[in-house]
Amino acid sequence: MSDNKTSDLRMLFALFNEIGIIEQLSRTLFEGRLPKGVLVSHFSVLNHLSRLGDGRTPLDIARAFQVPKTTLSHTLSLLEKRGWIEMRPNPADKRSKLVYLTDAGRTFRETAIDSLAPDMAAMADHLNLGDIEAMLPKLAEIRSYLDRARDAAGT
Amino acid sequence: MSDNKTSDLRMLFALFNEIGIIEQLSRTLFEGRLPKGVLVSHFSVLNHLSRLGDGRTPLDIARAFQVPKTTLSHTLSLLEKRGWIEMRPNPADKRSKLVYLTDAGRTFRETAIDSLAPDMAAMADHLNLGDIEAMLPKLAEIRSYLDRARDAAGT
DNA sequence: CTAGTTTGGTACGATGTCGCACTACTTATA
DNA sequence: TATAAGTAGTGCGACATCGTACCAAACTAG
């Protein structure tokens, strides 16, 4: 009984440990390919807007990445300073804003993807993509659980 | 052909995206259970030393977590300030130091694990541990690949 | 042995992250 | 409609992370 519990606990620790290290390594790797001063968090926002459509509110984006809104606010201000996004008023809610990609933003995303592509291609060669595909729904499930647990954390 | 490539790329983006969000959520969740001012990075170091044995050099530990040595140096100084670790000279290399857990450090680790246990237990109830167990070697493989890619990045 | 190179660790500065507090607006309630 | 409660976004301060530069010790080559 308690043996099972401790082994469960060990396994979960191992999981989050691996995930933490992979996050660390992949972030460092990708940031090494991006122009100086551009972080993965910046690219991710541009990519998100491009893939899922722009015209979203900052809070929508913050929730998508599960980061505090103040963090995203900072990121957006940098993206705007670089001319990659544009903040427009939200006609539906005067407190709110809508985030739009500029042409420069779309262009930057494309070139960034191009500079990441060789690494990605190498990964695709060396890793088992079938395994990764199979893993994605399991990871999404873990993500979703943590998301719910976070909401319940006020308890 | 190029369709496959772009779908591979999409899949890898999705993977790192999920991993980033899970890292984010789990870190926030765990840090909410730790005493104010104690971060997951601190706990992880104590846990590492306890599980794999202390008397390691800072650089060993930095490599284990794949963080820059300056980051670990900062973390260790905080742990030392709290009396949870002890830095002793390395008899084998006068430039180097060895990191040892103190009794207070071991005790803190235990209580921290206890305070994390309820969340972990809930996860163990709601997640499929078999899936996670199966995922661990795949994640380790990805980690290992990224590790090698990092070393080759100087190329 | 000595000079040049490599390695372990730290100091310092820049910057991203994030909690707190606040304002402006919206929604719910009476 | 008026008042209270909730929500979107930002300013600010604290601090972790990390790159650069540096020192001291260890290794390597001649």
The gist of it:
2 copies of one chain form a homodimer. Helix content of chain A is 74%, strand content 6%.
Please describe what this structure looks like.
The structure is a homodimer of 155-residue chains. Chain A has 155 residues and is mainly alpha-helical. Chain A has a single domain, classed as Arc Repressor Mutant, subunit A (Orthogonal Bundle), CATH 1.10.10.10. Chain A is 74% helix and 6% strand. Chain A has 6 helices and 2 strands, in the order H-H-H-H-E-E-H-H. Chain A has a two-stranded antiparallel sheet with strand order 1-2. In chain A, a hairpin with a 7-residue loop joins strand 1 and strand 2. The longest helix of chain A is centred in the first third of the chain and has 32 residues. The radius of gyration of chain A is 19 Å and the shape is globular. At the A-B interface, helix 1, helix 2, helix 5 and helix 6 of A face helix 1, helix 2, helix 5 and helix 6 of B. The structure holds a DNA duplex (30 and 30 nucleotides). Chains A, B: InterPro entries: ArsR-like_HTH (IPR011991), HTH_MarR-typ (IPR000835), MarR/SlyA-like (IPR039422), Tscrpt_reg_MarR-type_CS (IPR023187), WH-like_DNA-bd_sf (IPR036388), WH_DNA-bd_sf (IPR036390). Chains A, B: Keywords: DNA-binding, Transcription, Transcription regulation.
- Average pLDDT number of chain A: 92
Order of helices and strands of chain A: HHHHEEHH
Shape of chain A: globular
Strands across the major sheet of chain A, in which order? Answer: 1-2
Q: What is the count of distinct domains of chain A? A: 1
CATH class of chain A: Mainly Alpha
CATH domain topology of chain A: Arc Repressor Mutant, subunit A
Number of helices of chain A: 6
Number of strands of chain A: 2
How does the helix and strand content of chain A classify structurally?
mainly alpha
End-to-end C-alpha gap of chain A: 27 Å
